[in-house]
From TrEMBL:
Function: Catalyzes the phosphorylation of hydroxymethylpyrimidine phosphate (HMP-P) to HMP-PP, and of HMP to HMP-P.
Domain Pyridoxamine kinase/Phosphomethylpyrimidine kinase: 20-269
GO cellular component, one term: cytosol
Protein name as it appears in the record: Hydroxymethylpyrimidine/phosphomethylpyrimidine kinase
Organism: Actinoalloteichus hoggarensis
Coiled-coil residue spans: none
C-alpha cells in the first residue's frame, strides 16, 4: 500500500469484529493490515476476547445495539469505502449488523462492498460464534456479502461439504455460492498435505485459482483476518473483486512468510513491512 500524501484523505475501511488481547488476530490484525495497505481503518467492536498464543480463555459480546451504533456513526461522518466482518459472537449481533449495513448502504449491490469472513472458531478450536449465530450468518448475512472468505472448516459448518483434497474445492465454492454471496474465496490453507496452497475464487460462473507456496509455519494466528482485511483495503480503493483478491493473496503470502513465534503457542502472521 502507498501511504496517502500529507493532508489528503485516504480510502477508509471498516472492520466489524472482535478484539484479540494478544494483538495477533481480530480488530488488531485488521487495523495493522489497513495501515500497511495505506487505508484509514475504523472499527465496530463486537466482542472482547481474553486471548493469548494458546487460545481464547473467555469473551464478552457487546450489546447488539452498540455494535450497530458504531457502524451507523462512522458511516454517517467518516464514510466507509469497504467493510469486513470477522467474529460476530451472537445471532443478535449478526442481525444488528445486517440491519445497520442496510441503513448505511453496505453490502452486495449497494455502494459499499462487504467482505464476510464467516469466523466460527479460533485455530485452537475455541468457539467465537454461538450455534444459532451460524444459521444467521448462513441464512441472512451471506446473502448480502460481496465476497465470502470461508476456510474449509467453515465450509463444512455452513454447507456440510467436507473437502479433503484440492479436487473438492470447486464443489465447496459452488455450495457456498449457493448461500448467496456474489463471490466466494475458498481458502485452502487447511489442506495440509498439499505442498501448495491454491485458494479458489468463484462468482457463480468462473473459477479462478490463486496458487501460492505452503510455508509450513505453525505461526498463522490472525491469517484469515489479515487476508480479509487486505482484500477490503483494495476494495476500499475501488479495486474490482478479482484484483482485490489477488492483492490480498499477495499480501497474506508475505504476512505468512514473515510470521514469527510469540508466546508458548501459536505466533501471529507478520504486519511488519
Ligand atoms: N480472535 C478473534 C477476535 C478473531 O476475530 C479471530 C479470527 O477471526 C481469532 C481470534 C482466531 O484467529 P486464529 O484462528 O487465526 O487463531
Amino acid at each position: 500500500g502507498v501511504p496517502p500524501a500529507p493532508g489528503v484523505t485516504p480510502s477508509t475501511a471498516l472492520t466489524i469484529a472482535g478484539s484479540d488481547s494478544g494483538g495477533g488476530a481480530g480488530i488488531q490484525a485488521d487495523l495493522k493490515t489497513f495501515l500497511a495497505c495505506g487505508v484509514h481503518g475504523m472499527t465496530a467492536l463486537t466482542a472482547v476476547t481474553v486471548q493469548d498464543s494458546l487460545g481464547v480463555a473467555d469473551f464478552l459480546a457487546l450489546p447488539p445495539s452498540l455494535v450497530a451504533a458504531q457502524i451507523r456513526t462512522v458511516a454517517a461522518d467518516l464514510g466507509v469505502g469497504a467493510a469486513k466482518t470477522g467474529m460476530l459472537a451472537s445471532a443478535a449481533i449478526v442481525d444488528a449488523v445486517i440491519e445497520a449495513c442496510a441503513q448505511t448502504s453496505i453490502g452486495a449491490g449497494r455502494s459499499t462492498p462487504l467482505v464476510v469472513d464467516p469466523v466460527a472458531a479460533s485455530m485452537h478450536g475455541d468457539s467465537l460464534l454461538a450455534e444459532d449465530a451460524l444459521a444467521a450468518v448462513r441464512d441472512r448475512l451471506l446473502p448480502i456479502a460481496t465476497l465470502a472468505t470461508p476456510n474449509l472448516d467453515e465450509v463444512r459448518l455452513l454447507t456440510g461439504v467436507d473437502v479433503t483434497s484440492r479436487d473438492g474445492l470447486r464443489k465447496a465454492a459452488e455450495a457456498v455460492h449457493a448461500l448467496g454471496p456474489s463471490w466466494v474465496l475458498i481458502k485452502a490453507g487447511h489442506l495440509a498435505a498439499d505442498p501448495e496452497c491454491v485458494d479458489l475464487l468463484f462468482d457463480g460462473a468462473d473459477f479462478v485459482e490463486l496458487p501460492g507456496p505452503r510455508t509450513g509455519t505453525p505461526h498463522t494466528h490472525g491469517g484469515g483476518d489479515t487476508l480479509a482485511a487486505s482484500i477490503a483495503s483494495a476494495l476500499s480503493r475501488g479495486c474490482p473483486v478479482p484484483e482485490a483478491v489477488r492483492f490480498g493473496k499477495r499480501y497474506i503470502m508475505r504476512a505468512v512468510a514473515g510470521a514469527y513465534p510469540l508466546g508458548a503457542g501459536t505466533g501471529p502472521v507478520s504486519a511488519f513491512w
